Backbone:
């Protein structure tokens, strides 16, 4: 504005820009039309030292109760297997949750982390998003090993416009610490018009 800065002078501006360090969390999944939903588990990397620990994933809609779609550890994952194939009505809220086992026998569990909460332990990615880049814990493979078929040459998620990838951290580790790696459970959710 010429009344504030005279022509020919240089103004000094300081910018305070804060970029989010990870993709958004707390997503409400509400289809606007009737859809067919398919759920696949792409990978599990949850362990304590060299001991593989179980992981459990479940889902529900606003019209149904919780239903488990996966319960097991890394060797039980078959990425091509459709674990859920269900028609969901328009305007039904879909929620996913998951939790990690605190012991190998699966008799003790950590807390659930849900997709609809503002929870850093569950991240929902869509086409074009950048996955979080945390160092893998306990010499596990990098998160990109599960996602490599779903990444473009720039490292962004490349899936259908109506598909989602959900990442979970199952431990109690705080974000930014050694064991927080967002690859404990990786799930692909596909939607198509019913």
Residues:
């Amino acid at each position: 504005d010429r009344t504030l800065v005279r022509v020919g002078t240089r103004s000094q501006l300081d910018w305070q820009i804060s970029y989010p360090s990870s993709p958004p969390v707390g997503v409400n999944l509400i289809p606007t039309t009737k859809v067919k939903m398919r759920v696949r588990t792409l990978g599990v990397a949850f362990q304590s030292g060299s001991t593989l620990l179980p992981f459990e994933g479940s889902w529900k809609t606003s019209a149904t109760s919780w239903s488990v779609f996966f319960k097991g550890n890394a060797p039980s994952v078959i990425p091509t297997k459709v674990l859920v194939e269900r028609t969901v009505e328009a305007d039904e809220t879909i929620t996913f949750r998951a939790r990690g086992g605190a012991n190998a026998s699966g008799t003790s569990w950590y807390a659930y982390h849900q997709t609809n909460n503002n929870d850093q332990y569950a991240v929902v990615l869509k086409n074009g998003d950048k996955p979080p880049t945390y160092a893998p814990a306990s010499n596990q493979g990098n998160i990109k090993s599960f996602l490599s078929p779903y990444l473009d040459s720039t490292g962004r998620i490349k899936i259908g416009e109506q598909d989602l990838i959900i990442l979970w951290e199952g431990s109690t580790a705080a974000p930014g610490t050694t064991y927080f790696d967002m690859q404990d459970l990786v799930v692909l959710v596909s939607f198509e018009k019913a």
Summary: Residues 17-25, 137-142 have pLDDT under 50 and may be disordered. Residues 53 and 82 are 22 Å apart (CA to CA). The radius of gyration is 20 Å. Residues 143-147 form the longest helix (5 residues).
